[in-house]
Design a protein that fits this description.
- The chain is α/β, with parallel strands linked by helices.
- The protein folds into three domains: 80 residues, Orthogonal Bundle (Arc Repressor Mutant, subunit A), CATH 1.10.10.10; 98 residues, Periplasmic binding protein-like II (D-Maltodextrin-Binding Protein, domain 2); 102 residues, Periplasmic binding protein-like II (D-Maltodextrin-Binding Protein, domain 2, 3-Layer(aba) Sandwich), CATH 3.40.190.10.
- The protein has eleven helices and ten strands.
- The strands form three sheets. Strands 4-3-5-10-6-9 form a six-stranded mixed beta sheet, with helices on both faces. It has a two-stranded antiparallel ribbon with strand order 1-2. It has a two-stranded parallel sheet with strand order 7-8.
- The longest helix is centred in the last third of the chain and has 25 residues.
- It starts with a helix and ends in a 13-residue tail after the last helix.
């Protein structure tokens, strides 16, 4: 294994972009940084920096190596914070789908911070294409997960789907019925296959095909395209309720919703469950119930196809 001190100096030098900046950050001399880099290069049998003018610049190979080393040091730091005896801070590490984190969870965290100012919530995001669980976390949030026999699982809320668009786009050409979507641009998301087909089938337009289609890899990209007025997409509520209330999106067929997946909070059974984690769980469940109730009130005058609106 390469010497750890040399690895640490290398990681800082590659990130800072020069030996001089690394020396300043580490409170070392330029020569000390250079010697540690030479030691690491000898251990690896490969040059990591090249000279450009008066500066030493990391090679592309070294930059890739530095990214992995940086992630390893982050993991060590996280483990030291989690298991060290000198732990003084309260941290809840949450891993959630990107759209859920950006559009629903993060905007609400100020409320939790106001109630529990000494607890820090660290949010990392996951994509649908990622493995079920990746990295370390105290609590994960997923949609309709499979076998979770090793976890404590609590339902949060069910999503309901209906077409969404920017208000400006709908204002240009009003829609009288779902059939009018045939002449509009429909936006699809690769990680959410079948969402348009399911809704069109529910409203009796299973064979409808739009004249123009655009496809995106992740839903938060599709959502940005919708907000920018590029076309109509499928939106999920109450996840996007704040965007609707703020006027960033509108629901031209608000009375035509179809049920979707349910979000769950997931905590490993064999993990520590300190008070601050339980407080976050209780707050999360309360927010979910409030969000579901607000959704019910907002869409309460409408009826779903064959189903009553959910109760909070």
């Amino acid at each position: 294994m390469p010497p750890l001190n040399a690895l640490r100096v290398f990681e800082v030098a590659a990130r800072a972009g020069s030996f001089t900046e690394a020396a300043r950050e580490l409170h070392l001399t330029h020569g000390a940084v250079s010697r540690q880099i030479q030691l690491l290069e000898a251990a690896l049998g490969q040059a990591l920096f090249r000279k450009e003018g008066q500066r030493m610049v990391a090679t592309e190979h070294a930059k890739a190596f530095a990214r992995e080393i940086s992630a390893a040091f982050d993991h060590i730091t996280d483990a030291s914070t989690r298991y060290g005896k000198l732990l003084t801070s309260k941290v809840v590490r949450v891993n959630a789908p990107a759209t859920f984190a950006m559009r629903w969870l993060i905007p609400k965290l100020d409320e939790f911070r106001a109630r529990h100012p000494k607890t820090e919530v660290r949010v990392s995001t996951a994509f649908s294409s990622d493995p079920m669980f990746k990295g370390s976390f105290d609590l994960a949030i997923r949609r309709s997960p499979g076998d979770l026999s090793q976890f404590e699982v609590t339902p949060l809320f069910q999503e309901w789907s209906t077409p969404i668009a920017s208000p400006a786009l709908v204002k240009k050409r009003a829609l009288r019925s779902p059939v009018d979507l045939r002449s509009r641009t429909l936006l699809f998301t690769e990680t959410r296959p079948g969402d348009w087909e399911e809704w069109l089938g529910a409203v009796g337009c299973r064979d409808l095909r739009s004249t123009q289609q655009l496809r995106f890899d992740h839903f938060f990209v599709t959502l940005q395209a919708i907000v920018d007025g590029m076309g109509f997409g499928m939106g999920t509520f109450p996840t996007l309720s704040a965007d609707r209330e703020a006027g960033r999106i509108c629901t031209p067929f608000a009375g035509e919703l179809v049920p979707g997946s349910t979000y769950f909070s997931i905590v490993p059974l064999d993990s520590d469950k300190p008070k601050h984690l339980r407080e976050f769980q209780a707050w999360l469940e309360q927010c979910s119930a409030t969000s579901s109730k607000a959704f019910e009130n907002d869409f309460g005058a409408q009826r779903l196809r064959g189903s009553p609106l959910p109760t909070g």
